[in-house]
Amino acid sequence: MINWRSIKDHGYPTDDNISYLTTDGKEISTTNINVIKNYNNGETKFIRWSGDENTCEYNECCSGETVFELYPTHWCPISELNLPV
After folding, report:
1. In a domain, 7, yes or no
2. How confident is the model at residue 84 (pLDDT cuts 50, 70, 90)?
3. 29: number of Cβ within 10 Å
4. 30, 42, 74, 78: which could join 4 in a potential S-S bond, CB 3.0 to 4.6 Å?
5. Domain enclosing residue 34, as ranges
6. Residue 61: which pLDDT band, with cuts at 50, 70 and 90?
7. Looking at the 3D structure of the chain, how many domains does it have?
8. CB 80 within 8 A of CB 5
9. Which of 34, 38, 72, 68 is nearest to 53 (CA)?
10. Is 73 part of any domain?
11. Is residue 85 part of a domain?
12. Residue 40 included in any domain
């Protein structure tokens, strides 16, 4: 069972050291996140979904900015999934 967190109810994740499983209710994808950290007060703020190694790059000839084309409504840390061993 996946313990989905609704962005509407729980907000965005803030731990940029882990990957996330995300869904828009129709499709599913893995992604990392970009955050901004305020070291004066310890706050971490979500900036954007950054995708993962499978995310496309928007540039025809060479490396460009990554594009994560899913607009998630729910997320779950991948580390919480019970995968078979």
Report:
1. yes
2. confident
3. 18
4. 74
5. 1-54
6. low
7. 1
8. no
9. 68
10. no
11. no
12. yes
Between residues 70 and 58, the one the model is more confident about = 70
CA–CA separation, 21 and 43 (whole Å): 23
Q: What is the pLDDT of residue 83?
A: 81
Q: Reduced to 3 states, what is the DSSP secondary structure of residue 75? A: strand
Q: How far is CA 40 from CA 16, 27, 33, 43, 72, in A?
A: 18, 38, 21, 8, 30
Q: How many residues does the chain have?
A: 85
Mean pLDDT (whole number) for 6-25:
95
Q: What is the mean pLDDT of the chain?
A: 85
DSSP code for 17? T
Q: How far apart are CA 54 and CA 71, in angstroms?
A: 16
First to last CA, the chain: 16
